[in-house]
Write a structure and sequence with these properties.
By secondary structure, the chain is mainly alpha-helical. It has a domain at 59-194: Tetracycline Repressor, domain 2 (Orthogonal Bundle), CATH 1.10.357. It is built from nine helices and no strands. The chain is elongated, with a radius of gyration of 18 Å.
Length: 200
């Protein structure tokens, strides 16, 4: 029998809203949306169910925040990195590091989106997909500069394959410590994106 997750407590640098988004993302990834209750979210977050409504007007609004907040952070970081880091390899490695770190801290919003897309209003679904495309374009732009041997289609396929690899990490328990996992995935991502395949 597995023990239930201990309640999360907000550190001085973590807001209650962030804690709710984190634990809701875990629950929406673990269970069907309709079976997750505000009481379950509150219990895991260490707050009462009614307290949740001080931050989000509905469970659906919380789901949208679970999807939107991490995407906003990824896009903002990628744009900032691309603008400030002139060396394309250094910029790409920084984006990989940030993405891997976020994946190890929180269930990736793309996983939650794929499992709960039908519970998101159509307009919000289109907006989320547009954000995902914008984020992928930041990576693809750097890969294009570093891998002129690839076509645009190959670059897009490769970039999305690496996203899938990184985002899959929370799906299984490797038994490794987070630093080892981060280093392993980071190395695999860099090699996949930057090392050309041997010709057949």
């Amino acid at each position: 029998m597995t023990s239930s997750p201990s309640p999360r407590t907000a550190s001085p640098r973590t807001t209650r809203r962030q804690v709710l988004i984190k634990v809701a993302g875990e629950l929406f990834n673990e269970r069907p949306f309709d079976t997750v209750t505000t009481e379950m979210i509150g219990a895991r977050a260490g707050v009462t169910g009614p307290a949740l409504y001080r931050h989000f007007p509905s469970k659906q609004a919380l789901l949208i925040a679970v999807l939107e907040d991490p995407l906003n952070e990824l896009v903002a970081n990628a744009r900032k990195t691309a603008a400030e880091v002139t060396d394309p390899r250094e910029a790409l490695e920084a984006m990989i590091d940030y993405h891997v770190g976020r994946t190890l801290e929180n269930v990736p919003s793309t996983l939650v989106f794929l499992k709960n897309e039908h519970n998101v209003p159509e307009g919000e679904r289109h907006r989320m997909r547009r954000m995902m495309r914008l984020y992928a374009e930041e990576w693809s732009g750097l890969v294009t500069r570093l891998r002129p041997d690839l076509s645009d289609a190959q670059t897009r396929v490769l970039t999305h394959a690496v996203f899938s690899m990184i985002n899959a990490v929370p799906q299984f328990n490797s038994g490794l410590d987070p630093d080892t996992v981060a280093t392993t995935i980071r190395t695999a991502a860099i090699n996949a994106l930057l090392i050309p395949a041997d010709p057949a």
